[in-house]
Task: inverse folding
């Protein structure tokens, strides 16, 4: 258990987040070891989310089996031309040994969301209670400004809804109905996606994000979006996870 | 303890085969892409045989049979078994080759990899990687000839390695054993293929000699 005092100390230190910047396209992810802060005390005060929904992606676990995407499509009626979550692949011909890497992607549910700022009609908003970036589908005029504003390519225009659609951590389809996990985190066979509450010291996500032994990073820290989707690696045995 | 012995003997065999196979590149089956339980995992004969110089017998006499995608029908063809040293885990344990607990995306090529492979990977015809030359057993008049070419219609799995190893070994087969339904006799029993009574088909030298004496 981490005490309140300790927690404050942690936060003062700033959480060590090793940055990964996405230069140009997502496929050219280059590791830059510039420090960035995940959620400083200032942000904790400003966004008193309870629960503070967060996803931690243990990137080296992803094997691109596609189960998360399949389940997401089923749960949220995502059409074939769009996605709420996807998996990026990177292949480095000259790497020693392992040359392939899969990077699961979804809406980062930013604390500082550029899409919300860009929307002219407040159709997309930061939910005051959960911190999830959600949609008022009926308000959306389909201008697609938010698609351009999003640095993570996490939004698409849904023809059937005639509105922009995006990941909401399955809030509408699952969380609001009392289920604990988004569809993708539930089905992932390698537990590459860990879903939790960043404000709960007993939560695995809290414990991993608030430590410094193992690198935890966010995508494109330089754009200042303060994502709530964190990335790390895991050395635990696959069969231990079940 | 039992495991240790197996590992040791694998180590020796791999070491040994490095020498025997270093000379010629082997023609091998194309990449095998497993799709269950998860999509998808690549197994490359090219890398295991021609780059790592592992001989066919090491895998095919004890670990795998020789029909693609048979393995994935087994319920226990999964990571748990591999971690316990079965299947791929016999070698991928961090000692002989990188461990299955690491470098997931080296074996797992995912949905994307599977989609690419459909178009990119050509599985060579079975016939293109069987030994081309006939194998001769015995000497003198009773020399018998086995030709892979004449068995093109039979899948490798029917012989390898249930009946024969992937290695030419002179002197292991006897006529008595054949008559008792072993080796060639597993099929050449008059039911699956012509019966062993037809001496001359296999012992072709005998037939030439007979013709020769008949002329006199």
Result:
């Amino acid at each position: 258990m981490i005490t309140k005092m300790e927690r404050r100390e942690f936060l003062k230190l700033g959480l060590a987040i090793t940055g990964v910047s996405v230069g140009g396209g997502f496929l050219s992810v280059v590791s830059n070891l510039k420090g960035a802060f995940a959620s400083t005390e200032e942000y904790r005060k400003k966004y008193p989310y309870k629960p503070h929904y967060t996803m931690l992606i243990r990137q080296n676990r992803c094997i691109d089996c596609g189960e998360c995407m399949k389940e997401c499509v089923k749960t949220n009626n995502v059409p074939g031309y769009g996605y709420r979550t996807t998996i990026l692949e990177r292949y480095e011909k000259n790497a020693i040994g392992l040359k392939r890497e899969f990077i699961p992607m979804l809406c980062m549910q930013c604390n500082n969301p550029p899409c919300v700022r860009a929307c002219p009609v407040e159709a997309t908003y930061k939910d005051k209670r959960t911190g999830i970036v959600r949609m008022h589908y009926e308000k959306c005029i389909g201008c697609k400004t938010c698609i351009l504003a999003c640095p993570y390519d996490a939004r698409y225009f849904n023809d059937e809804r005639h509105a922009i659609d995006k990941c909401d951590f399955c809030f509408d389809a699952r969380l609001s109905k009392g289920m604990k996990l988004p569809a993708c985190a539930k089905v992932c066979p390698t537990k590459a996606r860990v879903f939790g509450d960043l404000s709960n010291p007993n939560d695995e996500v809290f414990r991993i994000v608030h430590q410094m032994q193992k690198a935890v990073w966010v995508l494109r820290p330089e754009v200042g979006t303060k994502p709530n989707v964190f990335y790390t690696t895991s050395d635990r045995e696959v069969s231990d996870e079940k | 303890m039992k495991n240790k012995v197996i590992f040791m003997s694998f180590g020796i065999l791999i070491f040994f085969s490095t020498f025997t196979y270093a000379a010629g590149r082997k023609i091998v089956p194309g990449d095998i892409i497993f799709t269950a339980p998860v999509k998808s995992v690549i197994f490359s004969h090219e890398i295991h045989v021609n780059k790592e110089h592992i001989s066919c017998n090491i895998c095919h006499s004890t670990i795998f049979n020789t029909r693609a995608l048979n393995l994935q029908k087994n319920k226990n063809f999964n990571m748990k078994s591999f971690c316990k040293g079965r299947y791929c885990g016999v070698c991928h344990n961090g000692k002989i080759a990188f461990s299955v607990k690491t470098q997931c995306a080296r074996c797992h090529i995912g949905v994307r990899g599977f989609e690419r492979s459909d178009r990119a990977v050509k599985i060579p015809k079975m016939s293109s990687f069987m030994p081309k030359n006939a194998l001769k057993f015995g000497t003198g008049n009773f020399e018998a000839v086995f030709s892979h070419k004449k068995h093109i219609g039979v899948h490798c799995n029917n012989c390898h390695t249930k009946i024969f190893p992937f290695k030419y070994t002179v002197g292991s087969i006897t006529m008595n054993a054949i008559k008792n339904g072993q080796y060639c006799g597993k099929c050449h029993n008059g039911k699956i293929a012509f019966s062993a009574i037809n001496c001359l088909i296999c012992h072709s030298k005998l037939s030439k000699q007979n013709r020769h004496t008949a002329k006199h």
About this structure: Strands of chain B lie at 32-34, 41-43, 135-137, 144-146.
